[in-house]
């Protein structure tokens, strides 16, 4: 018996769809410290802010930048082969309340809007800084000039702790079915 793909899944849309977005891969080694830990936290360029951290489901490095109306620019960052302290990934816009795309079982991937490259600057003894470079899909042939980021001092007071699985499930609850809202109002009276 052959397996069937869900009609709206990336698998049903063909290999070219899932090849546009880099699929999550596993971490290098669970429990081990890695070079990407220096990137974890909130960053500020003076013109914009971003956050880099570890995804609680996949333990992969993620990049997020807030946009208007609660949307976020999101990307999975992977180390660049042959480079030290450089990570690269594809970027997609996530709607308000939408969680990251973890693969074909999560439906169609979000539209890829570009690529990002993140470079850690300085040595382990220095205050860490990063540079980001973005290549907009359909507009740029190469990465734009690097933008320097420094730790976001305003975010220092934020709660520190392990990533939250609950926070990763950011999908909004579905609206009540027709008739359910009326029933709830009647029960309250």
Radius of gyration: 19 Å
Proportion of β residues? 25-35%
The main sheet orders its strands as 1-2-3-4-5-6-7-8
| Coarse shape | globular
The count of helical stretches stands at: 4
Residues in helix, %: 10-25%
Summarize the biggest pleated sheet: 8 strands, antiparallel, barrel
Class derived from helix and strand content: mainly beta
The strand count comes to: 8
Provide mean pLDDT, rounded. Answer: 77
Low-confidence stretches: none
Q: What is the topology?
A:
Blueprint: H1 10-13, H2 15-19, E1 41-44, E2 49-54, E3 61-66, E4 72-79, E5 86-94, E6 112-121, E7 129-136, E8 147-151, H3 165-168, H4 180-188
Antiparallel strand pairs: 1-2, 1-8, 2-3, 3-4, 4-5, 5-6, 6-7, 7-8
Features of the shown structure:
about 10% helix; globular; mainly beta; about 190 residues
Report on this structure.
By secondary structure, the protein is mostly beta strands. Helix content is 12%, strand content 30%. It is built from four helices and eight strands. The chain has helices at 10-13, 15-19, 165-168, 180-188, and strands at 41-44, 49-54, 61-66, 72-79, 86-94, 112-121, 129-136, 147-151. Strands 1-2-3-4-5-6-7-8 form an eight-stranded antiparallel β-barrel. Strand 2 and strand 3 (61-66) form a beta hairpin. The longest helix has 9 residues, at 180-188. The radius of gyration is 19 Å and the shape is globular.
Quick gist of this model?
The protein has 189 residues and is mostly beta strands.
């Amino acid at each position: 018996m052959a397996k069937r793909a869900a009609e709206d899944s990336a698998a049903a849309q063909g290999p070219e769809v899932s090849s546009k977005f880099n699929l999550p891969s596993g971490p290098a080694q669970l429990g081990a410290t890695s070079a990407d830990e220096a990137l974890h936290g909130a960053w500020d360029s003076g013109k914009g802010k971003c956050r880099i951290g570890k995804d609680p489901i996949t333990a992969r490095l993620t990049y997020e930048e807030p946009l208007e109306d609660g949307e976020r620019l999101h990307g999975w960052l992977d180390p660049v082969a042959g480079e030290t302290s450089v990570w690269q990934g594809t970027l997609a816009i996530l709607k308000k309340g939408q969680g990251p795309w973890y693969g074909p079982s999560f439906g169609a991937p979000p539209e890829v809007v570009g690529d990002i490259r993140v470079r850690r600057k300085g040595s382990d003894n220095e205050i860490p800084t990063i540079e980001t470079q973005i290549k907009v899909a359909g507009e740029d042939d190469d990465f734009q000039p690097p933008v320097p980021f420094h730790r976001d001092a305003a975010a220092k007071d934020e709660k520190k702790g392990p990533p939250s699985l609950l926070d990763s499930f950011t999908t909004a609850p579905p609206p009540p079915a027709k008739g359910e809202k009326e029933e709830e109002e009647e029960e309250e009276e």
